[in-house]
């Protein structure tokens, strides 16, 4: 039976119910250019590096590129000023259990580190051994680089990682990295994540997945650390 040592989580749409706030922030900064983003313009791009999104929006609407770095800065400011941060039900309890068992945990997100630090409740990220953000990679999802970087930071082979994702682009990234992927139906329909190894309806359902239960019941996670 395949042996797993670590769990790697996407953040937005997986751990935190933040995607609607990100969408509204992008709507606000693109509107002055006459671009009125629809959900189908944004949600299929979930997982793409933040710095790439303005270019994609302008290309889709047939407009020349603008100062993408400035637009990202404005979007991040809008998000921080207007967001209503919330974890999905079951997140805080399961992360606390896994961390308490000594299971190596990582976050791999296309988001930016400063935003995470300023919006995530104090102490939450400290439960993770590693955090990989959009600034840590040269190519974002669906490239395997983000999840390869996460495994590297955990000192674990990618094949020994369970990745929890909600976005099809993120699922593709995880599978290309060689990880086992569990997809959540938090922001897209089940049919969109068929590339995943397993699909569950919610974060709360994760605790009932056999592979997760095995990690939870392992004594202090000792059997899951150290192998390369």
What are the key terms here?
228 residues, alpha/beta, six-stranded parallel sheet, 9 helices, disordered C terminus
Provide structural commentary:
- This protein is an alpha/beta fold.
- A 6-stranded parallel β-sheet has the order 3-2-1-4-5-6, with helices on both faces.
- Helix 1 packs across helix 4.
- It is globular and about 55 Å long.
How are the SSEs ordered, and which strands pair?
Blueprint: E1 6-9, H1 19-30, H2 39-42, H3 53-60, H4 68-82, H5 91-100, E2 105-108, H6 113-119, E3 130-132, H7 145-154, E4 161-165, H8 168-177, E5 180-184, E6 198-200, H9 210-217
Parallel strand pairs: 1-2, 1-4, 2-3, 4-5, 5-6
Helix pairs in contact: 1-4
Shape: globular
Which residue ranges are poorly predicted, with pLDDT under 50 across at least 5 consecutive positions? 219-228
Radius of gyration: 17 Å
Global structural class: alpha/beta
Strand percent estimate: 5-15%
Averaged pLDDT, please? Answer: 92
Percentage of residues assigned to helices: 25-40%
Strands side by side in the biggest sheet: 3-2-1-4-5-6
Number of strands: 6
Question: What's the helix-strand series?
Answer: EHHHHHEHEHEHEEH
Query: How many angstroms does the end-to-end distance come to?
Result: 17 Å
- Total number of helical segments? 9
Instruction: Summarize the biggest pleated sheet.
Output: 6 strands, parallel
């Amino acid at each position: 039976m395949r042996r797993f040592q670590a769990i790697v989580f996407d953040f937005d749409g997986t751990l935190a119910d933040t995607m609607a706030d990100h969408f509204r922030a992008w709507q606000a900064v693109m509107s002055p250019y006459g671009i009125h983003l629809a959900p189908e313009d944004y949600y299929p791009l979930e997982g793409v590096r933040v710095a790439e999104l303005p270019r994609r929006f302008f290309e889709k609407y047939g407009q020349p590129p603008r100062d993408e770095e400035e637009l990202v800065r404005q979007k991040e400011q809008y998000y921080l000023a207007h967001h209503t941060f919330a974890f999905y039900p079951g997140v805080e309890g399961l992360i606390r259990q896994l961390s308490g068992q000594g299971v190596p945990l990582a976050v791999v997100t296309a988001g930016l580190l400063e935003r995470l630090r300023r919006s995530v409740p104090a102490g939450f990220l400290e439960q993770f051994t590693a955090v990989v953000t959009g600034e840590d990679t040269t190519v974002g999802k669906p490239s395997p680089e983000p999840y390869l970087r996460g495994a590297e930071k955990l000192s674990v082979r990618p094949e020994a990682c369970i990745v929890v994702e909600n976005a099809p682009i993120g699922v593709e990234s995880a599978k290309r990295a060689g990880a086992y992927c569990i997809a959540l139906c938090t922001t897209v329909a089940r049919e969109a994540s068929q590339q995943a190894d397993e699909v569950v309806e919610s974060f709360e359902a994760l605790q009932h997945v056999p592979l997760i239960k095995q990690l939870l019941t392992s004594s202090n996670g000792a059997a899951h650390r150290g192998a390369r």
